[in-house]
Amino acid sequence: MTVAVVLFTSDLRTHDHPPLRAAVAAADEVVPLFVHDPGIREAGFAVPNREAFLADCLADLDASLRGLGGRLVLRSGPVAPEVCAVAGESGATQVYMAAGVTGYAHRREQRLRDALRRQGVTLRVYEGVVTAVAPGAVTPAGSDHYAVFTPYFRQWSKEPLRAPLPAPRVVRVPDRVQGEALPSRSRMSGVSPGLLTGGETAGRERLARWCSADLAGYEERHDDLAGDATSRLSPHLHFGSLSPVELIHRARGRGGPGAEAFVRQVCWRDFHHQVLAARPDTARRDYRTRHDSWRTEKDAAQDIAAWRDGRTGYPVVDAAMRQLRHEGWMHNRARLLAASFLTKSLYVDWRIGARHFLDLLVDGDVVNNQLNWQWVAGTGTDTRPHRVLNPVRQGKRYDPDGGYVHRWVPELEGVEADTVHEPWRLLPDQRAALDYPAPLVDLADALARFKHARGRD
What gap in Å lies between CA 4 and CA 51, rounded to an integer? Predict the structure, then answer.
């Protein structure tokens, strides 16, 4: 009787899971294992919204495995010792897992490989599970990574993708291996009230609905703030309850401009992974330094607090920040606006904003969060690093009827669309009746300050 362990990490699904399929084909019995690593909590990344979504994912994965005749085994502790313990208890000779795509994951993988080798157990690692294309698989001549997205996308698009795999038909788990009770969202505090439900089942249902209803119009509508035509699948990609390979195949199978625009957005995730793999320091340091003398927490405490609380006096920025707090998620266009306002209108260090996003975003990860913040701040891979997004013009363009602002800033619910993005234009008595702050900063003054700081005045 042969036994294998499948270590789940950022791939909490049964569909399109090469390590799980390979283990089921190779062994008589399989132990599906997830290890809750206390190091993630100690590093400050185990925040309530992601812990709640993770709990949903683990419960759903357990239910899916039980439907196949198996179950999920949960252990807590450092990953390598826990996996070795389960391998010893089960008599497993092989451990299967997805290849890591972050520095933390690579270190975890190496420690695990070394520990298992000492125990006489083989570690088998599979690429193309967490990302569609592995970091480093596509490189330009003379460099270890692409610094600009468009040429990367051209080459990435030429990479052949494997066909998505169905879930295995049966998973047999040895009775002798036991695990801990699964966590439950209902027992957690500090979770955003509007947080999405996690898990593969919810993700696949949302994917099917969105492909039918919104994919075709994605190219034209993905920036529409009130229309909310984006997929909202980013949390499922973060936790791996959906496969990026399957998403790309499903989109390309439908075809059309909307599908191609969506695939392009999925590619941004792989692009950022290959940047951080080559430049791990960019999680904390500028990818391209502009020698900014950013304002710090101490210098700009009141401005930062107003930004975090959605009380800047710029309605679309405030709507974005309130959506983040309520849902643990934010529309991509809103993320760009909120980040641009903090870094370029308030001239606050991008790392302060990135940390706040990581504290609340259900899809928050160091790779995409930090590099998107750097892109907006002009220290990253943006080919127009000094552009500033004007929140008034952007609000009028992407929320022309004011629906997004009306939803998240109820103080302005009765303000008409023609002034909702500029409430200071209201008559004095109308303005006085609103419980809404005056603008935190004059945009013209802020733009002049930013240009001067960047030596472009």
Answer: 28
Asked if 170 contacts 30 with a C-beta cutoff of 8 angstroms, the reply is: no
Q: pLDDT tens across 389-409, in order?
A: 999 999 999 999 999 999 999
Q: What are phi and psi of 36, to 5 degrees?
A: -80, 105
Lowest mean pLDDT among 15-19, 44-48, 60-64, 342-346: 44-48
In a domain, 184, yes or no: no
**Distances in whole angstroms, Cα of residue 199 to Cα of each of 83, 125, 168, 183, 401:** 23, 23, 18, 13, 34
Structure tokens at 22: 């390979």
Residue 91 sits in the same domain as residue 145: no
405 and 332 housed in the same domain: yes
Q: For residues 239 and 53, is the Cβ–Cβ distance under 8 A? A: yes
Q: Which amino acid is at 390?
A: N
Q: What is the pTM of this model?
A: 0.96
Which stretch of DSSP H or E encloses residue 126?
Answer: strand 122-126
pLDDT digits (tens, 9 = 90+) for 74-97: 999 999 999 999 999 999 999 999
pLDDT in tens, 199-223: 999 999 999 999 999 999 999 999 9
What is the domain-level CATH number for residue 431? 1.10.579.10
138 & 114 share domain = no
- Given a cut of 90, whether residue 170 has pLDDT beyond it is yes
- Give the residue numbers spanning the domain of 369: 301-453
Question: How many whole angstroms separate alpha carbon 97 and alpha carbon 263?
Answer: 26
Tell the burial category of 113 from Cβ atoms under 10 Å away from its Cβ (0-12, 13-18, 19+). Answer: middle
Tell me the CATH number at 265: 1.25.40.80
Same domain for 253 and 111: no
